[in-house]
Fold these 3 entries.
Entry 1:
Amino acid sequence: MKFNILTIFPNIFNSYFSESILKKAQDKKIININIINIRDFTNDKHKTVDNPPYGGGPGMVMKIEPIYKALRSLKKKNNKKRKIILLTPAGKQFNQKIAKKYSKLDELVFICGRYEGIDARVEKLVDEKISLGPFILNGGEIAAISIIETVSRLIPNVLGNKKSLIEETFSSTLKSNKSFIEYPQYTRPEIFKINNKKYKVPKILLSGNHKKIIEWKKKKSKFK
Ligand code: SAM
């Protein structure tokens, strides 16, 4: 699967995508992350990507032309399933269900805004508007990273152990729209002291009784 990110801060991504599971997934060529600097699609010597808003108001607004040209530079093969996503707090809130839907596509394109936002006409160039949550970030880059990570781990062979996905929080949702919340997990040591109080791992998890452990895990999982 290919992820394209349109941004004016391409270096933000280097460190995060060069580590751990996402690095391995790229090395194994399961995913491909293509970072596009919107400034490369400007014509003036200052590489201007923003201007003051029409009608006045604080801050700067990102111009449509460089974004339009950057999108046009992405060649799309006819048989490929691709979605262009505008990252905006005004969009539909991202969740695990959307991640599953995206994981079936061949390509995703993210447009990361900055400053006061993006010229509203950019909406005409996109398939979906997505928000990471009901809060304001400085830019869409962290939203793009979060979505790419969430979608990537649903793609076959990205995770070392595919069982990790089965019982995971949000892995299933009831008709009532309640989501599955995974049972609590513990590892060594068996007893840990916080402010002189001992916190123990539940005995049942140390019992070796797999049937009882499964029952305990079911009991401790919730739908929220
Ligand atoms: N003035 C805008 C408003 O009031 O909605 C906020 C602009 S924000 C400072 C700059 C950029 O960050 C946005 O264009 C968007 O791309 C990104 N952004 C901010 N919050 C976001 C969120 N919750 N989800 C996705 N992207 C977000």
Note: The chain has two domains: 2-152, 163-223.
Entry 2:
Amino acid sequence: MSQTRHTRTLIIGSGPAGYTAAVYASRAMLKPILVQGIQPGGQLTITTDVENWPGDASVMGSDLMARMGAHAHEMGAEIIADHIKSLDLSLRPFKAQGDSGTIYTADAVILATGAQAKWLGLPSEGHFKGFGVSACATCDGFFYRGQAIVVAGGGNTAVEEALFLTNFASGVTLIHRRDSLRAEKILQDRLFRNPKVKILWNHTVNEVIGSDEPRGVEGVRTKHVKTGEIAEIPCKGVFVAVGHAPATALVKDQLKLHNGGYVQVEPGSTRTSIPGVFAAGDVTDHIYRQAVTSAGMGCMAALDAEKFLAGMNGAKVSEADACAAATDIPG
Ligand code: FAD
Ligand code: NAP
């Protein structure tokens, strides 16, 4: 049965940004509700070892996120397994609707919806998605034991996925469109040293080829970016790791966006173009996109929300009043 829940602070997303916002908002006695979305714990739950979270030389991504969730819960945040399907920021209080049917109303919203994997956009990629084409090595790598695998991309994710896949594959070919990687040097070193990895520089994947009965990948057709030469690489699995796009579907027509769709915030703050709405983590960050920076922004968003709500003096106010309160926030 549908119900309406009111909260002073609604946090949308359960990655490092959302959980950190929940810790700080709870300690500010804002009694936040955090809605987890379809990926509880966020992107780090699909990776293995995280080696750059301060305080842990190495920690499993899923363990780290479980700890963050438990911390937020212990501080008093109400954590709800639901997914927000619509968000109306034209109303005060703001109104969100969950897939569960629950309506959430909130005086302040912290948007921490993170980012989602990008795809190459090839029709054949779509055709074989789930039948040999994947964007998550930790989820699907196991299916390709003893097989040849291709990874497309040149960033941290591509290199980590390629290295992880060497645990299963007979060999991994990393296909990158340039002649140097974007990934951190420490990861590049590991990649270059791994005897199971071959790198195909200056190539793009132009087509995924395979059979239909049963549906499965047989290889990829590649193109040299300079010569245009076409070649085929046999493989059973294709892992696409060409970056992540901000998850802004809920707000793209309501908030100002910039740099390819990231939520725009005032410099040095998490304030968006609508007073009372704050954005933190990968949904607003086109530069750093790290767990620790997302967590830092989650902290900022909770502190910004606290100041905003203090300006509202706890009362439900009109949009004009809310704008005035936001303008009064010290910089
Ligand atoms: P995310 O972690 O993306 O979480 C977004 C959350 O929003 C999810 O819980 C999702 O369910 C929720 N959500 C989305 N839409 C809705 C909705 N409509 N309703 C409700 N909830 C919603 N960074 C590092 O610092 N170190 C690493 O080692 C590292 N490894 C990585 C490995 C991989 C494979 C990937 C993909 C990324 C890695 N990163 C790493 C980057 C890091 O994961 C991100 O920077 C970080 O997770 C971003 O945190 P976030 O809280 O902004 O969003
Ligand atoms: P990314 O850093 O944006 O890298 C995307 C890669 O894909 C780039 O090499 C890019 O090529 C390539 N690419 C993009 N579009 C392509 C296309 N259409 N065809 C072929 N190649 C394409 O993305 P990411 O690796 O997913 O990382 C996202 C963020 O998470 C980054 O900030 C990263 O640091 C972070 N992260 C961190 C860790 C870690 O700390 N260990 C691990 C994973 C991710 P170009 O280089 O030519 O642009």
Note: Helices lie at 16-27, 61-75, 123-127, 137-140, 156-165, 185-193, 291-312, 319-328.
Entry 3:
Amino acid sequence: MRVSVIGCGYLGAVHAAAMADLGHEVIAVDVDAEKVAALSTGTPPFFEPGLPEILSSSLASGRLRFTTDIAEVAGCELHFIAVGTPQSDDSGAADIRFVDAAVDALLPNLGPEDVVVGKSTVPVGTAQRLAEKLLSAGSSATLVWNPEFLREGFAVKDTLSPDRLVFGVADGVGQDRALAAVREVYAAAIASGTPVVETDLATAELVKTAANAFLATKISFINAMSEIAEATGANVTELADAIGYDSRIGRRFLNAGVGFGGGCLPKDIRAFSARAEELGLGSSVAFLGEVDAINLRQRQRVIDRVISDGGGDPVDLKVAVLGLAFKPQSDDVRDSPALDVARGLAEAGALVTAYDPEAMGPAQKRFPELKVASTLQQALLDADIAVLVTEWPEFVQLDPRTAGDLMAHKRIVDARNVLNPAEWRAAGFHYSSLGRP
Ligand code: UGA
């Protein structure tokens, strides 16, 4: 099929390359000429495993092109809207002006039977308003809401083989044709068994918001348990294992630690709360405020722990911060717990040296005074204490004897609960984690 993708950020760039990889002819549009130029040469502006490969092969096949000229989308049957919906500066609400701008830019280029497919994460009610916008502009194109559930670090796999597809569409003329079109564009995934949920626009929008709210709640739940475990001498990892065997609960997203971050979970729960307030239903999701508070408390908890394990005085304490990205396999430092820990320690007077395999450039853009090391070993050299805040494999596999030989004092705070306490203690380390004895 001939498809367009509007917005070449994380979601759009991956989606465009994946659609071309599936055999579709794709034109991807972004207002940022620099981004378009980079993507056109096969260079993604962010780190994502597997993306450079499908980007290069799709560009070479001639099925994928990037442009800044929206008029080039004319003639495509499907138009994916994949622009960002960042958190507004003044409130927790989502800023949806880029979504509106994308629809406005698309309008003059739409054919009567085209399908506009919304993928951006938007507050419930947005899609209905956009469908009305199409109608009132005299377009007979149909809007489908098709939320995206990809995880950074697994974005290519999640796009090519999603665990479910959700298609929201309003009743009426064009509904069947639009559903047939989205089923066709995702035919490969559907043929290999991906479940499809066909629903209305509001439900489709809410599925995404609810999914991220649930995931965030799961993480804050286990982090709250880790506080209780710590005070009572219990072990939060064993607790998670045990409750996780109950298939109604499930073990995934029950890893206690420094908490969730990134460009999605934190902003999405705040946007959900703001939207519920607008609907007069703030109390229905008031618990999300607590989920957010527990999550942010983890960052301070880790900062306090590093200071206390480091001897109590942060001033001139040499701290090796292992990790800056909000999670491994990503260079994303948006709302990153790791970066906040590095910043908080530096602000308290500690001499912080950070290392991350991918995220040092993006971290220094946000926090220019941050001192970084070019290797893990260099970060550890002469450190009084180390803190593991992003569970990159090279940190998880770090040999405590090697680390001990480099550091001034053998102390480590494992803020992701991923190291083996017995091994580190046997190597002479003062080891602590969150909610594990
Ligand atoms: C999240 C969702 O998982 C995706 O389904 C969704 O599509 C995406 O947001 C989005 O809205 O675009 P992502 O932000 O890439 O994906 O990252 P996750 O893998 O969900 O991790 C989020 C954060 O939670 C990370 O900081 C991670 O370290 C933390 N986390 C995760 C925990 O602290 N404990 C866990 O057990 C799991």
Note: The pocket of uridine-5'-diphosphate-glucuronic acid is lined by residues 121, 148-152, 212, 215, 219, 253-255, 257, 259-262, 264-265, 268, 326-327 (CB under 6 Å).
